[in-house]
Amino acid sequence: MQTVLEVGGLKLYYRTRQGLVKAVDGVSFTLKSGEVLAIVGESGSGKSSLGYAIMRLLPENVALYEGKIVLYDTDRAFDIVSLDEETLRREVRWKRISMVFQASMNAIDPVSTIGDFIYRILREHRPLNKNESLKLAADALKSVGLPATVLNMYPFELSGGMKQRVIIALAIIMRPLVVILDEPTSALDVITQANIISLLKELKRDTSMILITHDLALASEIADRIAVMYAGKIVEVGDIDDILTSPKHPYTMALLGSTPTLRQDKELGFIKGQVPSLINPPPGCRFHPRCPFAMDVCSKEEPPEAELARGHKVSCWLVRS
Ligand code: ATP
Ligand code: SF4
Ligand code: MG
């Protein structure tokens, strides 16, 4: 399989009155064509920040944004970190890589029809007239299981599940190479969640996905690989089977231990302690204050990344290549 996205040493820090928030702090991974990579971790671990960093949608208080993000199309590669804004807007964002933002279904303009809402967003990225855009929108709605009549409806006429489908339709409307989905099911009831999960399973045939979620059960239903994020870093990444049946990092083990059955949207808060502040993260291994296996070295030096079979990578002093 070909690499469609390569992320290396990516950092995104925010400036705050309390100090620098190191939300993404040296993240590396690759995404292959047709693959679903889940980014899993507790609230505040930097998952959404990673999504925004990949899209290069940065807030005003960004203090540091560096590293490598390369998107590979068949005949062209785009270096997202250094690309000029115009090319990024015209050629990359939305067209080749798009994002379903966390809780975005609540951000659909309440006073526009769905058709007008989609048209306004589309024309920012492509010189389309309204009819062309409505045709594209109708096709995208069809592929998420919604009839074209939805284009004439207002958000208040749609259920939560339908709104989420509209948002997913908008993300795939330009047939991007990669879609980033940030907590795509978290605001939905269990049955609607199950419907959205089946939809994502269908869509993964056509596009590579990065699925951001705190829900390991959701990740295990859709993903081919899982990257576990803790306090701004990826601490373990591997094929779904390796992660689920043979986790190596104590944090991944704890996450699995706190996911008793599939499909239960359990919060992960009951791992002892909390995700540390990203302003002054613990030295050495950031998980050491919560780790039952912590040794002397863990609070002093950052663990190196060990590479096991099939691209299974782990950053823990207990694991050697
Ligand atoms: P959740 O699961 O709750 O969505 P997350 O893993 O997506 O969490 P982020 O939203 O990326 O985490 O936030 C990571 C850290 O960065 C948090 O401490 C958050 O408060 C902080 N943060 C996010 N955006 C900003 C910002 N613009 N300025 C300062 N701090 C920020
Ligand atoms: Fe625990 Fe040490 Fe491994 Fe960190 S490096 S997860 S503290 S054993
Ligand atoms: Mg988030």
TrEMBL record:
Q: Which residues form a coiled coil?
A: none
UniProt keyword terms in alphabetical order = ATP-binding, Nucleotide-binding, Transport
What SMART domains is this protein classified in?
Answer: AAA
**Where does the ABC transporter domain start and stop, copy by copy?**
7-256
| A GO MF label | ATP binding
Which Pfam family is one of those matched by this entry? ABC_tran
Instruction: Write down the superkingdom of origin.
Output: Archaea
A single GO BP: peptide transport
Claim: ATP-binding is one of the keywords in the record: yes
Instruction: Enumerate the Gene3D superfamilies for this protein.
Output: P-loop containing nucleotide triphosphate hydrolases
PANTHER family per the UniProt record, alphabetical: MALTOSE ABC TRANSPORTER, ATP-BINDING PROTEIN, OLIGOPEPTIDE/DIPEPTIDE ABC TRANSPORTER, ATPASE SUBUNIT
This one is known as Peptide ABC transporter, ATP-binding protein
